[in-house]
């Protein structure tokens, strides 16, 4: 009987111990899963923070790049203004030098003695060329008779410009000023490549020439003097075939008047151009005063 009781007790103890072991294993598994979940949640939160930080850095870099681009454009504009100012200074210095340089004919500067001897022909009327007069002086010089030139007009100042467009212009509304931003020549500094306007530094008769190219849409461009239209050109692309047009005009422009190109159609006008294909151009030159 004692042996049976002992056996039963051992069985009960074994069963209880097995249950306890299973409970301990269940607790360990639950603890392990909880710890893993906490670690995974922490890793996920850290990843979210890293992604947010990366987005902030990307936005900062993009903003700084835009600022750099604006500064570069501003520097380009400053350099172009400095070039224009340098040309104006050189032109002013040239005009001042021309005004202050004495002329030999006005100052009666003596000629070289050998030239005097070769030119001294007071008593040789048959050797006078046509349209010349003899100056009765000790030199006996013969100079052209300029009386028949009195009606001819001359140009005292050099005024000429030429510019082109280095990019496309799209969606132009009526009245849109066309700014040809690349200058190839600007004698007299009358053309402003920031506004596309030529301001006449001298009164006189000017020759103006301009051209444009369109690839998809109609464009009608006029040459205006102080807002008054003087002549036009039109491009009419058809079936994906581009169209190019140009015009030339000679008109009188007074000093201080402004000349520019503008789109005069009411719908979307376009001009195709780039730095290598200089289709859109605007040029002018002072012919005479």
CATH class of the largest domain: Mainly Beta
* CATH-defined fold name of the largest domain: Jelly Rolls
Uncertain parts: 104-112, 127-138, 146-152
Give the strand content.
25-35%
Strand order, largest beta sheet: 5-3-14-8-11
Number of discrete domains: 3
CA gyration radius, whole angstroms: 44 Å
The description of the largest β-sheet is: 5 strands, antiparallel
> Quaternary arrangement of the chains shown?
single chain
Task: Count every beta strand, where a strand is a DSSP E run of 2 or more residues.
Answer: 14
Strand-pairing-aware structural class = alpha+beta
pLDDT averaged residue by residue: 77
How many helices does DSSP assign? 3
Rounded to the nearest angstrom, the distance between the terminal CA atoms is 145 Å
**CATH architecture classification of the largest domain:** Sandwich
User: What sequence of helices (H) and strands (E) makes up the elements?
Assistant: HHHEEEEEEEEEEEEEE
**What share of residues is helical?**
25-40%
Shape: rod-shaped
